């Protein structure tokens, strides 16, 4: 950090909106830090600003800045040329408390002057939360009291900027370089945007979960990705230490970035899968390869009898003398959702099943000759039998039924369970945007809900509310997609029904069992997650009644 200049900035304004309000005072303290030493102030600058608009009485009371004081002050346009180099040097970091507030006002003021302004920002609220996650609040007054910082002119631009300088000095003295430097680097991420991207690209990307799309010179996306923290993930594509030639090429080709926010991580994963499948972005090489394998013809393995058995009745004859194959493979295209429970899969190919059984054979005493994986003369011992790793099904030393029961045990983790509800369900992800502690007044955002509707392990789509989810459940076709199925199984394992904590993996709930009332989901099922500068999320599995069905008994859960 010694090579960088930190600009400690504070502005006083006529209100809380950069679009409607104006700056009344600005201060910048430039400082550099010698290795292992304190920050040394290199320059200090402040000025009142004539906002050319009224200053509300409450703002006058808070800051002490009156219309008479700014009447003869220069306008922002008259100060812009002198101020800009203090804020936007190539090695300058813009440091402020609630940096988005100060940065947003200054950016808006520069834009009114026809000046493009952009800078890397370090928010001391976020830094305080990172260094002291168990201490609250993180307002400037709280930091002053907690760290006993000297104050001269609170709620004036220069006085507050000096407090930020004192705070960073205090953190370095008390926590040391080994703690503070990594925290600052984590928050900065040192993004290096390509010259053809707007300077404020990253500041416009939200911090919550969602999907992002990189575009080049046309409307076909170059790359599609998802993240729980969109801004952090998008920034990581432009860090200075690129790790691959493909990453460098993607950064140089990107001309535009779009994103779609979601209420939670599951919604981001489902949306990413759908967009990659539909748009086929050029740089999603690995994802497109997986799509080609999983979706066209995934293969299932099923038993030839109600019990886990894959052959004819028990016999002492060597398995190779029997005409029936021990495993029967069925392509997904030949199955309906109702046919899925009890089958094993999905697998990408027969070879994937053979690899699984081959790896498990020595530990479980499986016979690869009996499973038609290894070839050889009828009645002769397989390779594992010669090594003492096969129980002898190939030479008649073990009955086929016992052997195949062990095969079923190996495949058990891949068995598709019965759909545990009588109808469609929705996994509801809810995001509530809260005001950060000590944050200056801003309009609160409404809650967002994503209803991910499933039926018989098929993802029907995502709706914005319960009514739309019911309509989706009524009209959407049932198409099994292996990736969505795995996401749902993982989500049910991570967020099981609290009334039935035995839910895991297979989720063997008897068909028709109700999830309503004392056995059902409730708001107590909430799982809390606190990403940086992001509101709390709630996640619960909620059933959706079939649209048009007026029978209240069909409601198997209530999302209210």
Can you put this structure into words, describing what you see?
The protein has 560 residues and is an alpha+beta fold. The chain contains 18 helices and 15 strands. The strands form four sheets. It has a five-stranded mixed β-sheet, sandwiched between helices. It has a four-stranded antiparallel β-sheet with strand order 14-13-12-15. Helix 4 (99-112) links the parallel strand 4 (92-96) and strand 5. The two termini are 50 Å apart.
Which class of secondary structure composition applies to the elements? alpha+beta
Share of helix among residues?
25-40%
Shape: elongated
pLDDT < 50 stretches: 290-299, 303-324, 433-445, 498-560
- How far apart lie the N and C ends? 50 Å
Main β sheet profile: 5 strands, mixed
How much of the sequence lies in strands comes to: 15-25%
Radius of gyration: 31 Å
Tally of DSSP helical segments: 18
Total strands: 15
SSE topology sketch:
Elements: E1 5-13, E2 23-33, E3 39-48, H1 57-63, H2 67-70, H3 76-87, E4 92-96, H4 99-112, E5 120-123, H5 124-131, H6 140-147, H7 157-175, H8 177-188, H9 201-204, E6 210-215, E7 221-227, H10 230-236, H11 245-253, E8 256-261, H12 265-279, H13 285-294, E9 299-302, E10 328-331, E11 344-347, H14 350-364, H15 383-386, H16 400-411, E12 425-431, E13 448-455, E14 458-463, H17 466-475, H18 482-494, E15 537-543
Helix pairs in contact: 5-8, 6-7, 7-8, 12-18, 14-16
